[in-house]
Inverse folding.
């Protein structure tokens, strides 16, 4: 069964695509030896009664710059991945993962997910653009407390660079009111997810 997509417009999530009401699990086969970027950021997906949200999230966050086979930039710091955690009204955590290669995935703490959307050129380009714009977050970010943790009522961006991990966060109240420096990137994240939804709709025809 194909994993459903969701469509986000700003802070508004269209309930027809929200997964609280129809739980469909994604599970990663951790016995696979990931040897290239495609395998690393696109785990195998199956249907299961086991919720592997945390496993998929940790797997994505563990990806290293070298695994993506990106050009050697010497001593220059390069942002190659972004993991965004969005606490959706205390009901679930929505996690968007984007890489400089164009790979992108979407995970739900309720157990569902979208994996491999970056195979489509439109989504791949949007993912690369998202990473490029996310560079603006680095000056605001800290390299302390970068472990994956969930905070109620917060939006968090985990920034993955070849020099280390960084994190920047703010309350969703501020993000939604456009009083947060994270509001612009939250909008960019919604645009990326909208591209994922658009591709899904096209594939139905």
């Amino acid at each position: 069964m194909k994993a459903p997509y969701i469509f986000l417009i700003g802070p508004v999530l269209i309930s027809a695509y929200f997964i609280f009401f129809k739980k469909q699990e994604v599970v990663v086969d951790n016995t696979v030896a990931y040897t290239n970027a495609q395998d690393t950021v696109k785990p195998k997906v199956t249907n299961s009664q086991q919720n592997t949200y945390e496993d998929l999230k940790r797997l994505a966050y563990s990806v290293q710059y070298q695994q993506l086979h990106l050009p050697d930039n010497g001593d220059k710091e390069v942002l190659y991945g972004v993991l965004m955690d969005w606490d959706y009204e205390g009901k679930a955590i929505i996690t968007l993962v984007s890489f400089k290669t164009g790979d992108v995935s979407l995970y739900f703490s309720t157990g569902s997910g979208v994996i491999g959307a970056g195979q489509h050129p439109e989504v791949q380009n949007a993912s690369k653009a998202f990473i490029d714009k996310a560079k603006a977050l680095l000056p605001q970010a800290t390299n302390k407390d970068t472990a994956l943790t969930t905070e109620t009522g917060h939006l968090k961006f985990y920034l993955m660079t070849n020099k280390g991990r960084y994190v920047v966060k703010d309350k969703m109240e501020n993000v939604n009111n456009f009083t947060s420096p994270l509001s612009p990137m939250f909008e960019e994240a919604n645009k990326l997810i909208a591209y994922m939804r658009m591709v899904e709709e096209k594939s139905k025809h």
